[in-house]
Amino acid sequence: MCGVSGRIYYRCKPSKRRMPIGKRHVTASLLSDAIQLQNRGQQATGFVVGFSYLEQPYVPWKKIGSASALFGKDSEAKADTLIKRYKGNLGIVHVRYTTAGESSNEAAQPHGFKHGGRSVVIASNGDIPLYTKLRRRIVRQYGCRFASKCDAELIVNLIGVEIFEKGMDEIAAFAQVGSTLEGAFSLVGMTPSGKLVGMRDPWGFRPMFWARNEDGAMICSESSVMASEFDEVHEVEPGTLIVISDNGEEDVSIQRFAPAQPSFCLMEIYYFSQPNSKYKGVSFDELRYRLGEETAREWFASGKPIPDIVAAMPFSGGPAAQGFIEGIRKEANTRGRNVVYKNRHGLGRAFMSKLSDRADRIRANLDIIPEPVHGKAILLVDDSIVRADQARWVCPELRNRGARAVYYAVTAPPYRFPCFFGLNTPESKLLIAHGRTEAEILEAVPGLDVLHYLSLEGSMRVLGDQGFCTACFTGKYPMPVPNNKREIV
């Protein structure tokens, strides 16, 4: 799972005659976008900037590290240097959370395909399950060379072959690749002729939005990043391609390249997307609140005990816990309190770190607030449990601090199967729910007395069955995926 953004500033304002806007460049805006997208990736950051009216090879800037560390508020001198050095009215930026392939400068995005003095570049959010098979094919047929195992490098090679080797129109090349490629890809790109492109796979696993105003247009993974700058933000529909030139409103086209087969990732709703971004016009914060209410309803319907205190697992569990507290008030006089403290200036998101670093990050990031805990039955509300690293630390720590009992409510179903569409969960054995019943999961978490997961049916009561990928909960994948180095459906 990654974050992407693309911007183009028009050479003329749509409402006026064709006159240059001036010396406005996109680099400063792209750096700001990257910082705002860090919920989607903190391991590597990269961007490409160029001029829409000059056919030139695009040269990416990319580094290992989070956007904040590379050019955030503590690195303003570096940001100023980048803004002065990289000029252009067209650009794309990427923040990476490594889900497949290696973590290196070579694997960091964007990736490009160069031919003579021209190039096409993309930055993608998602994964291609049958990456190895496709890479071998184009290496054998066209002699393509790869610097990494990143799926975006595969996609841009496929597009580059169509444009430069086969002579296909550049937009037709994007559509051709999009219509034949099976996998998750919400991508932004820059074409050889200087157009900004956004493309979303037919399943729509990952979010993508676009907007425009008088000065320019933007394509982005999070609607919240766009909201303050654009009056109206549109979803890029699954199976569509949006193409924006520097002519403004008179040259924005949306093309369908494949029928939509909606399979939006439920984990985007439970956990990943920013709370102030939207799904079908409703904020993720509101949806998480409603999921918390539904979890409380199921909790009581199943006869589970009434806690003394309800607390959120920070930070992403906050809206769900608020909804749970509202739901529980209808049944009992239970208070909501902060019990688990998370250091906002700690070592980053444990979910996005290497396995060897995860335990250290959790210990550095989390602590228990002791006053509300002693002698109380504490119910923790979390948006999801994947590996249970945090639960395995927090639950026994609460008991050590004097909690009488520890309960756990999860506003998502048990995460049992690996994801091949953009989440870093490739090995089943690392998933605490894989091959376990809820009772067996309970036994695997020290210090935990009661556990409840929101049912998939409960989620659909809140969200409506509008086309979601449920593979990580059910094992039913919408396309062929690897399994022990073999391909299955």
From TrEMBL:
Catalytic activity: 5-phospho-beta-D-ribosylamine + L-glutamate + diphosphate = 5-phospho-alpha-D-ribose 1-diphosphate + L-glutamine + H2O
Molecular function per GO: amidophosphoribosyltransferase activity; iron-sulfur cluster binding; metal ion binding
Name of the top EC class for this enzyme: transferase
One Pfam match: GATase_6
Cofactor(s), by name: [4Fe-4S] cluster; Mg(2+)
InterPro entries: GATase_2_dom, Ntn_hydrolases_N, PRTase-like, PRTase_dom, PurF
Keywords: Glutamine amidotransferase, Glycosyltransferase, Iron, Iron-sulfur, Magnesium, Metal-binding, Purine biosynthesis, Transferase
One example of a Gene Ontology biological process annotation: 'de novo' IMP biosynthetic process
Active site: 2 (nucleophile)
Cofactor, how bound (note): Binds 1 [4Fe-4S] cluster per subunit.
Residues reported to bind [4Fe-4S] cluster: 265, 419, 469, 472
Chain positions recorded as Mg(2+) binding sites: 316, 382-383
UniProt domain Glutamine amidotransferase type-2: residue ranges: 2-247
Enzyme Commission number(s) of this protein: 2.4.2.14
CDD domains registered for this protein in UniProt: PRTases_typeI
Pathway: Purine metabolism; IMP biosynthesis via de novo pathway; N(1)-(5-phospho-D-ribosyl)glycinamide from 5-phospho-alpha-D-ribose 1-diphosphate: step 1/2
Origin: domain of life: Bacteria
PANTHER family linked to this entry: AMIDOPHOSPHORIBOSYLTRANSFERASE
Family: In the C-terminal section; belongs to the purine/pyrimidine phosphoribosyltransferase family.
Protein name in the entry: Amidophosphoribosyltransferase
Organism listed in the record: candidate division Kazan bacterium GW2011_GWB1_52_7
Lineage: Bacteria, Bacteria division Kazan-3B-28
